[in-house]
């Protein structure tokens, strides 16, 4: 689960990380009120969307201006002007895709005099099963570009969970960033606090870009991006309360209500599969035959008729879906349950696109019998290769 920058900073502030004062704003009037509370004389007006690259982003609407989604204001009047321009406008960044994201909220923050910019992140290293820190003196730019052009400027170390964060980790961070004296003490303290926050809040990723040294020598978290392990959210109702559903795909939200593993993609063939491995193989073979999947959808091993019906409705609600492939291998899952769910869903919402069904495993004959006797216009397939070819051909023929 992702949260906004201002929410991430509030979480980090609770662990005593050096974060500037700031307030969220949902209207121009709230932006002005926030600026007055902060006092100035320099404010930063930041769009709040779940995507990076906001500062270099461009708004679709000309009236929103061409200064990007992060702007410096030197008067309260400028704060209000920027707020009116950006709220409700659509910001396109390298991470949003061409559709962009509509801006519903801003963050008004104290400005800072920047002396140096660093990059710092913490993430779960799946290879070592440890939390790893990644640091670079090249802050404020895309870390991917640094990794590609100057990989020697990226440093990392991992933390053994048996010992937790230790003083030598702080010293390693200071060395990587070239900090000495008071600066070294500050980064050592910050790394400890970030590690504590990461573990205590079950984060999956924490990125600070940039981490700055101000002209007075003090470190400050200038931008923060935090993601949480969704499987651990039951332990953190305070984090769940930060969820912004306007930043999420409506179909993915609906799928989560039915405990379905669903991710929207940009293809035209909707897929309903049980098991993540089989789902990936299904998407791969659709690509092999020249089309693209519209989604990843794993209904799980113990799906009920109701869950299958819900999954089918989500697929048919996607206007990009020009055909549907249902590929079920019944181990724990029973093929007759899948068939009943599909029949119920089709009768409820109708069927306007080609549908190919491949069933194999437990109660497969009964499942096929249900579909055959349902009177539905369903194309039956014998195996995965046959199913993929049939749905691709059907979509192309209907185009």
UniProtKB/TrEMBL annotation:
Which residues take part in binding substrate? Answer: 274, 331-333
**Domain ATP-grasp, chain residue ranges per copy:** 9-241
Say if the entry is tagged with keyword ATP-binding: yes
Give the organism the record lists: Roseiarcus fermentans
**What biological-process terms (Gene Ontology) are attached?**
succinyl-CoA metabolic process; tricarboxylic acid cycle
Protein name from the UniProt record: Succinate--CoA ligase [ADP-forming] subunit beta
Record has Iron-sulfur as a keyword:
no
The UniProt subunit note reads as follows:
Heterotetramer of two alpha and two beta subunits.
């Amino acid at each position: 689960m992702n949260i906004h920058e201002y929410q991430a900073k509030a979480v980090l502030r609770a662990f005593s990380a050096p974060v500037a004062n700031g307030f969220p704003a949902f209207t121009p009037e709230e932006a002005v009120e926030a600026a007055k509370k902060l006092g100035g004389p320099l404010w930063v007006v930041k769009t709040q969307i779940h995507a990076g690259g906001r500062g270099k982003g461009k708004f679709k609407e000309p009236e929103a201006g061409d200064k990007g989604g992060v702007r410096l204001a030197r008067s309260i009047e400028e704060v209000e002007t920027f707020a009116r321009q950006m709220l409700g406008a659509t910001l396109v960044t390298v991470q949003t895709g061409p559709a962009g994201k509509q801006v519903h909220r801003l963050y008004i923050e104290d400005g800072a005099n920047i002396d140096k910019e660093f990059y710092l992140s913490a993430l779960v290293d799946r290879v070592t099963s440890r939390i790893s820190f990644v640091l670079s003196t090249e802050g404020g730019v895309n870390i991917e570009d640094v990794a590609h052009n100057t990989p020697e400027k990226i440093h990392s170390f991992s933390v053994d969970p048996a010992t937790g964060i230790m003083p030598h980790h702080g010293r390693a961070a200071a060395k990587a960033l070239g900090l000495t004296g008071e600066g070294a003490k500050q980064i050592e303290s910050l790394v400890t606090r970030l590690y504590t926050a990461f573990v205590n809040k079950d984060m999956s990723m924490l990125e600070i870009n940039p981490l700055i040294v101000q002209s007075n020598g003090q470190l400050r978290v200038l931008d923060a991006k935090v993601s949480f392990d969704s499987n651990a959210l039951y332990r953190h109702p305070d984090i769940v309360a930060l969820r912004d559903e306007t930043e999420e795909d409506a179909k993915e939200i609906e799928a989560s209500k039915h405990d379905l593993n669903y991710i929207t993609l940009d293809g035209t063939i909707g897929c309903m599969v049980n098991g993540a491995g089989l789902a990936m193989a299904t998407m791969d073979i659709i690509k092999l035959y020249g089309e693209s999947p519209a989604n990843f959808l794993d209904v799980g091993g113990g799906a009920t008729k109701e869950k299958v019906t819900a999954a089918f409705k989500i697929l048919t609600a996607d206007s990009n879906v020009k055909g549907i492939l249902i590929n079920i291998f019944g181990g724990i899952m029973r093929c007759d349950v899948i068939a009943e769910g599909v029949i119920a869903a089709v009768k409820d919402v109708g069927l306007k696109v080609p549908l190919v069904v491949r069933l194999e495993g437990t109660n497969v004959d009964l499942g096929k019998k249900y579909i055959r006797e349902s009177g539905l216009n369903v194309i039956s397939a014998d195996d995965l290769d046959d199913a993929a070819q049939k749905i691709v051909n059907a979509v192309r023929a209907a185009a």
